[in-house]
Design brief:
Elements: H1 2-14, E1 24-28, E2 31-34, H2 35-48, H3 57-78, H4 89-103, H5 108-117, H6 122-143, H7 151-162, E3 167-178, H8 186-200, H9 202-209, E4 220-225, H10 231-237, E5 249-251, E6 254-267, H11 272-301, E7 305-307
Antiparallel strand pairs: 1-2, 1-7, 3-4, 3-6, 5-6
Helix pairs in contact: 2-3, 3-6, 4-6, 6-11, 7-11, 8-9
Length: 308
């Protein structure tokens, strides 16, 4: 009860927070980030993951600054190819669908009220969603021809592992995808993340450490069938119980920590062609995500960020 009251008090204070005086904090090429932009970013992140309110103000500010800079770097690249600031009916529809899914509603007024509670204008939120939407399109256009998947191998693996199964496991998962900076030690970094999970919760640790786009949502992946995961990941998940986290799992673009939030068994109704298509899509998404992270890191290295 005490924790809930503290959380509600924090939100009540933060929802009224606005910059008394607008100041430019960072400059990236011809774009700026102000103190109000950081406040808006923080409110946006909290609106997607209320668990962030348990973090100290300094850490919250660091997360918001990092997120705002990341969005600005993406925007600088995207505006070379798209009229990203223009709202269209088609793009707006996709944005609202994504917001509906994330907030569990199909009513635009409910969506507007949700973000208004956090002092956010819905148009600003839609812009943020457009950045992510067009970023995904850019990565797809640039790298889809480089995706390498052996469909026959997927079918063989699928038949070997699941052909005679009456029930299939489904997992409700959350993730933290991290990599190492220069001179960082893997075991020390992993221990730092685990200690943060223990003290601040998995969702907050995802916001702090994860490179994946799911970080904004506390690392949430949701329900996913065992059929759709690699053996390397399922082997780790099968070693832990509900509520526990895996050891770090090496991936093509870093290291993955998985939290098993829930699990269930579903009746197996296996359609080889359908399941193969799902596996191909999952592997395509995984490879595109790897390209996305690498491309973003390259952009970041080539942009000088002035702190004013």
């Amino acid at each position: 009860m005490k924790k809930l009251l503290i959380c509600l008090l924090f939100l009540a204070i933060f929802n009224t927070l606005k910059a008394a005086e607008i100041k430019i904090l960072y400059k990236l090429e011809n774009e700026i980030i102000t103190n109000q932009d950081v406040i808006d970013e923080l409110n946006y992140l909290v609106s997607l993951n209320n668990n962030l309110t348990s973090l100290e103000k300094k850490k919250l500010n660091q997360i918001a600054v990092s997120s705002a800079i990341k969005e600005k770097i993406k925007f600088l690249e995207l505006k070379k190819y798209f009229k990203i600031e223009d709202s269209t009916t088609e793009v707006d529809s996709i944005v609202l669908q994504e917001l509906n899914k994330r907030l569990g509603t199909n009513n635009q007024e409910n969506i507007r009220q949700h973000f208004a509670y956090y002092n956010l204008d819905l148009n600003k939120v839609k812009f943020k969603m457009r950045v992510e939407l067009f970023w995904n399109k850019l990565i797809y256009d640039k790298y889809i021809n480089k995706i390498s998947i052996n469909e026959d191998d997927l079918k063989k693996k699928f038949l070997k592992d699941f052909k005679n199964k009456e029930f299939i496991d489904e997992y409700y998962l959350k993730e933290i995808l991290f990599n190492l900076e220069e001179n960082e030690n893997l075991d020390k970094k992993y221990l730092e993340i685990i200690n943060t999970i223990k003290s601040k919760g998995f969702e907050n640790a995802a916001n702090i450490f994860s490179l994946s786009d799911t970080s904004k949502y506390g690392g949430e992946i949701g329900w996913i069938s065992k059929l759709q995961l690699s053996k390397k990941i399922t082997d780790q998940i099968d070693k832990i119980g509900v509520g526990e986290v895996t050891n770090y799992i090496p991936t093509g673009n870093g290291y993955l920590i998985i939290k098993l939030d829930n699990k269930r068994k579903i009746k197996s109704k296996i359609n080889l062609e359908k399941e193969t298509k799902i596996l191909i899509q999952k592997e395509t998404d995984r490879q595109l995500n790897q390209y996305s992270i690498n491309f973003f890191n390259k952009l970041k290295k080539n942009i000088f960020i002035y702190e004013l």
